[in-house]
Every structure is written in C-alpha cells, then in structure tokens.
Amino acid sequence: MHADVAPLVVGILIFISSLISLKLGLSVAIIEITLGAVAGNLGLEAQPWMNYLATFGGILLTFLAGTEIDTQLMRAKFKESFLIGALSFLLPFAGVAAFTYYVSGWDLNASLIAGIALSTTSLAVVYAVLVETGLNKSELGKIIMASTFITDMGTALALSIIFIKPTLYTAAFLAVSVIVIVGAVGFSHRVLEHPRLRNKVIEPEIKYIFVLLLIFIYFANLGDGHAVLPAFLLGLLMSKHFTESSTTKELRNRLRTVAYAVITPLFFLVGGIKISFTLIASALGLFLVLFALKMLTKFIGVYFLAKRYLPHGSMYTTLLMSTGLTFGTIASVFGFNTGYLNQIQYSVLVGVVIASAVIPTFVAQRWFMPVHSEDIVDVNNGR
Q1: Does 61 reside within a domain?
Q2: Which of 137, 229, 315, 326 could make an S-S bridge to 378, C-beta 3.0–4.6 Å?
C-alpha cells in the first residue's frame, strides 16, 4: 500500500472502529486491534510516524491510568493488589518458559522471552476498558489497575535483570526519570492551576504533560529501556493534582478526549497490524497451546485470589488480568531484534499477545460485567 494512502486508511479505520464499538457495546480497543490485524494482512503497513505515535499513545494511556489510581485505596488494599499482581506474573512466566524450553525445544533465551512476553497484563487495555465502562472510578477498577501495575513491574524487572546490559545511557535514563518525576510532582501545580494557563484554547497544560512524556520516551530509547513505568509512576504521583479541584478534573477529561481521538487508537491499530496470519497459520498448534497456557496460568494465578478479595468481580478481574499488549509486544520485539527469537517464534508470540488483548476482553464485557452496585459506586463519593 502506498505510504500516502496510509493516513486516510488509518483515519477511516479509527472512525469505523468507534461506530462498531457503539453498535456492539464493546471496548473500542478490541475493534481497533481487530481491524488493524485485518488491514495489516491486506497490505497496510505501519509507517514510522504511526509507530512513534503508537508508542506515545501507549505511554499516554499508562500515564492516564496512573492518574486514576486512588493512592489511599491502593495503600489500604496493597495486600490484595500485590498478591493478585505478583501471581499474575509469576505463574504465566514460569509455565510458558518451562513449556517452550522443555516441550517445544526453544533455547533458554527464547523461552525466557516467551515467558516474559506472555506473563504481562496490558495496563493500556485494562485502563481503556475500565474508563469506557465507568469502572475506573470503582474500588474494583482501582484494585485491578493497581494489580496490573504490579504484574507489569515484574515483567519489566525480569526483562531488565535477565537481558538488558546497563550502560551510561541506562543510568542517564534512570536519573532523568527520577528528576522529572520529582520535579513534576513538586512543580506541576504551578502549571496546572495557574490562572493564566487554565482552560485556554491552546491547552498549555496538556502540552506540558506531553513534554514530560516525550522526555521519558527519548531517554528510554537512549538507554534501551521503556517509558511505561516512569510514565505510570508520574501519573500515580500526580494523581492528587487531578483530584483536588473541579478544574484539574476537567483537565484530565480534556486530556482523555485528546488521547482517545487519534493518539491511542493508533496504539491499538498498530498492535493489530503487526500480526501475520500466514506465519501464525504455519505454527497454529503452537499458537493455540501458548494462548491456552497463558489463559490457564493467568486463571490459576488470579481467579482464586480475586474470588476471595473481589467476590462480585472475580471472573471479570481474571479476564482483564489475562490481557496483554504493550509489554508483551515490547518483550517480543526485543527478542526478535537481538536474535533470540526467529521470525516464526516472534509472530506466534505477538499473535498470542494480541489475541489475549481481544478475546478475554470480549468475554469479560459480554458475559462477566459486574452488575452489583457495590462494584460501580465511586469510592471517593460515599464509600
């Protein structure tokens, strides 16, 4: 497909995704990934600008997810969040790595990459679904997001400790991340609440946040890291700025509107474009087994704890915690670029990652949406 046609096709797909989402009552993220996969296998290729905006979209979604975390609730429910998140990482990591090494005959590095890629939970998908359903304001939604962060923290640490070789650029990325987070937490109120900057058409507050996230992305690329974790921590620590007044709450709504209009749809579309149906078909048995293994280990790791701590949303929690996208794709790309994975292994892993973003989300929304009032009441308003 000619590069000049790509923006038009992308725009049409984003618009159609919204219409289908409204018609079917499903998360638009599911539709965007699905249409992206179909378009990619029909010839649509991700252009460099699409890849960069997709990266930015994932980081922006992660930052927004951080701003939704109720830090008081997170502290009060730390045990629940930590246990669910930790087992959500550990069991799939161990199970997939062992299967690919001992049964499928992959070498050790490829097996470890597979374990990391399929142990993830997509904070971007989880956040997008919770916002669309309104559960981001509930105790259930906040615990799910906190648990997801624990899972992704385990994934990021595993990838870093096992594979990434630290350099001076890595140190620079860590140092800059700390400086930006500490500085932003102490300084941001001067920007977000300044009377000359608030509610202006040119949106200086949103541009300020974009600059902070772009700094993370730039230095993460230099240091062979990823900006997801610092972006989430920034959102988490700035969450008080978005809850202290009606003005800053409105700012978060405007930021969400900007993100959902174009930027985050590209994140999901590009994720779908990376799927090769042909390569997956060539190893369909392995694809199905790995997908089933991820779902099984996620179920064992999450469901029984969720049944104890979140009885009215245990299956819904399990299914959302089974989704993967951002870190799973990152780990797969890392393995392919470094030569640890061959083309078929890479395509199968990415295919499983994308399938895990779509299928569990679809099932969760279609058959396991929480219906009890205690699951959908805003915990900041009377609970």
Answers
A1: yes
A2: 137
pTM (two decimals): 0.78
| 241 within a domain of the structure (yes/no) | yes
pLDDT tens for each residue of 69-105:
777 777 888 999 999 999 999 999 999 999 999 999 9
CATH code of 317's domain:
1.20.1530.20
Q: Are 135 and 240 in contact (CB under 8 A)?
A: no
Please provide the size of the chain in residues: 383
Rounded Cα distance, 112 and 94, in Å:
9
Domain count, the chain: 1
State the 10-residue block means of pLDDT for the chain, 383 residues long.
79 93 80 89 88 87 79 82 96 97 96 95 86 87 90 85 82 93 85 67 83 93 81 84 69 84 86 84 95 97 95 94 85 82 90 90 90 44 36
Whole-number Cα distances in Å, 107 to 16, 34, 161, 199: 42, 31, 18, 56
Contact (CB, 8 A) for 290 and 352: yes
Q: How do the residues of the chain divide into helix, strand and coil, expressed in percent and rounded to 5?
A: 80, 0, 20
For residues 370 and 139, give the distance between their C-alpha atoms in angstroms, rounded to a whole number: 12
Residue 340 belongs to domain spanning = 48-376
Q: Is residue 29 part of a domain?
A: no
* Residues contacting 122, CB < 8 A, separation 6+: 148, 323, 324, 325, 326, 327, 328, 357
Q: 6: burial class by Cβ within 10 Å (0-12, 13-18, 19+)? A: middle
Between vectors from CA 121 to CA 116 and to CA 123, what angle results, nearest 5°?
130
DSSP class of residue 227?
S
User: Exposure pattern of 217-229 as b/e (b: 16+ CB <10 Å)?
Assistant: bebbeebbbbbbb
